[in-house]
Amino acid sequence: MEISDENLKLEEKKGDYWLLKTEPAEWSWDDQTANGGVANWDGVKNKQSQKYMKSMKLGDLCFFYHSGAKSRRVVEVVREWYDEGEAVDVKAVGEMRAAVGLAEMKKELKGVEFALFRQPRLSVLPVEKGVWERVCRMGGGYEDDD
């Protein structure tokens, strides 16, 4: 199956890309998709991760990432950082059409600067546009990307 940039909404997307990492026992995709798919992304204590969250803008897209799991999902920032909750709100967008594991990303992105490879312990990381596009292609795009 050939995936075009048009189908992936890559060129029309303005804004930044992020990776939000959690463990399924802490916050699962089922948790995220409950209540219309909107939830606050909170509980982040690391100052660098909080700094990244404070940089997020409405409409930014994020990979919803579980360590060890091959599936990747996408969420969108629907409320920017707010101090009273020390959070951003994100809405479920969809699941990748094909599973993409960490080993596959490391192979496909060999030699590419990707914060996940450098700082794997951080729960919030920036994702460069080129990396976002390549991972989306690897996963065949995501639900509701048309």
Automatic annotation (TrEMBL):
UniProt keyword terms in alphabetical order: Nucleus
SUPFAM superfamilies to which the protein is assigned, alphabetical: PUA domain-like
Pfam family, one: EVE
Superkingdom as given in the UniProt entry: Eukaryota
GO CC aspect terms: nucleus
Localization of this protein: Nucleus
Keyword Nucleus attached: yes
Domain EVE residue range list: 17-138
Protein's name according to its UniProt entry: Thymocyte nuclear protein 1-like
